[in-house]
Amino acid sequence: MPIAAAGLLFLPPHNSSPDMYVLALPIWAGSDVMTVLAFIGGLSAATAMVIVDSVALAIMVCNGFVMPWILRRRGDAFGVDENMAGLLLVTRRIAIFVILLLGYFVYRSLAQVHGLAAIGLISFAAIAQLAPAFFGGLIWRKATRAEPVAGIVVGFATWFYTLLLPWVVTAGWLPKSLLADGPLGIGFLKPQALFFLQFEPLTHGVLWSLIANVLCYVFVSLVRPPEPIERLQANVFVLDDLPRPVQAPSFRIWRTSVTVGDLQHLVGRYLGPERAERAFQEDAESRSVPLSLNAEADVRLLRFAEHLLTSAIGAASARLVLSLLLRRADVSRQSALKLLDDASEAIQYNRDLLQSALDQVRHGLSVFDQDMRLICWNRQFRELLNVPSGLGRVGVPLDRILRTCAERGDFGKDPVDKLVADRLKKLAVTKETYQEYIAPTGRILEVRTSAMPQGGIVTTYSDITDREAGAKACDAHRDSRAARGRAYCGANARERSARRGKSESR
After folding, report:
1. CA–CA dist 19, 299 (Å, integer)
2. What's residue 153's pLDDT?
3. Which range, of 50-59, 151-160, 352-361, averages the lowest pLDDT?
4. What is the pTM of this model?
5. What is the rounded CA–CA span in Å between residue 244 and residue 506?
6. Which CATH number fits domain 361-463: 3.30.830.10, 3.30.450.20, 3.30.565.10, 3.20.20.70?
């Protein structure tokens, strides 16, 4: 801001580019030392930005486009022992060179007229086209894979027409009548005045491109019903109130002849043998099992290998590499993909089915693992204890839930640490059945605890408020009848005593 303000105040408005203010100001002031320092600093900053951006773009292009294309065309032609790290490195170097050439071409063609700052602004407008797909996928359960593609394509087309096309016309590549009269002389289709609405060019382009993007997203979502796999994925990513396992149990849908050694060797071709060996060894140690290279690989290990490959060559290429390995092991390509996908589908389907059954139970239910961390619960558990939404998730410790309830005053007015310790002892140590009075709501809960064979506990919470109220009413009625009986007997005794007194006086 100070440099921009000084440039506007002291430099000639028509002879100085805003991009060069940092150099023009020291020259105007006649300071050679500051001019050299500004030049060196600007050169180093620009060089660093070019290096970082070109490397990042090259990795994305290589992982998202080039490597999947190479693997699809030559997947079976690669030798089993061929080192893919060299090919990956060469591909990224070529991508860096091509990106630098394209950047220089855009600079020479467009930046000479509009400046680097303007290029940055329309670049932000282009990135904004990803926003509808991003937020729609987070909050809309009906979203499918077709809506983001359609919305992004239409949004980018509108962005190109309203923002980039005027630059192309200004550079002299297209006739200026396209801006003045619109395509084919259609006035309401002017790139900078669509439907005769005129705004500042950047605002105009961003507004129309996002409107087109969102409308296309919503339209495709309404006309195209989601597929079963898309509905399942929507339940996984959109619904937050269903418990998720910390680690899904590993089970095998199909048997495969791929061994742990095959997976480790495959990962080593892309990450290097030492790094792959260290990663598989650490994974085995984390599960407290020996690393056997001849053992048959399960679904969990396939997903672990896919995760390692994704860090090097991207998700699409990692999926292709694994499918090629499984196909060499006499597993069809379609079965290989289903091996990786259907495991998650089956786990999630069974989990949703179990959750629906648990929610139909009248009592509150919660399950804690051997570390006393929440792994499963039902809706009644959260309602009876009024558990906040932030605590209703997998991995929350039991003492944190109890402490939150104690701090609210649910368990009484004793010190919080004492209340929490007392209930932890009853739940995790003695596992005794006890009654809990929830002060704010007046509820009385009966809490029962059972131990699980593999460690951990299952707790149930029953609302016995009505039962206790009925028992108190019965006790009060019985005491009232007893009091009336005693009063009646006392009156009879006094009456008999009075009669005897009268008889004796006669």
Report:
1. 55
2. 92
3. 352-361
4. 0.47
5. 93
6. 3.30.450.20
